[in-house]
Hints:
Layout: H1 5-8, E1 10-20, E2 26-28, E3 36-41, E4 46-52, E5 63-73, E6 76-84, E7 93-101, E8 104-111, E9 119-127
Antiparallel strand pairs: 1-2, 1-3, 1-9, 3-4, 4-5, 5-6, 6-7, 7-8, 8-9
Amino acid sequence: MTAAPSDLVGAWRLxxxxxxxxxxxxxxxxxxxxxAGLLIYSxxxxxxxxxxxxxxxxxxxxxMGYAGTxxxxxxxxxxxxxxxxxxxxxxxxxxxxxALADGRLxxxxxxxxxxxxxxxRVLTWxxxxxxxx
Length: 133
């Protein structure tokens, strides 16, 4: 079933962020074992995502975030990035496969250095309810 824009509109809390290696192994994502995050899709096409590490690994990436616009393209969501905590993302289009089930939104896409092994990044979000912390 293809998602409609109204299916995404609202706020989502990050439940998990993992990497899936080419051989299928699931590994810890770049924000550690217990990341926190908030993803907001507005009805007028804006998106904002903020994610952070919650453990005390000072040497690792602590925060990732960006904002811009979004649109659906079949079974994918496309984020056009206008501001970001990572300069290389500004002006980029972040394309993610999406799945919706049981109040959860799963977004996934490939990551990895050019010429190196590819890893699938999988983020699972749960819809927030009201002003729930």
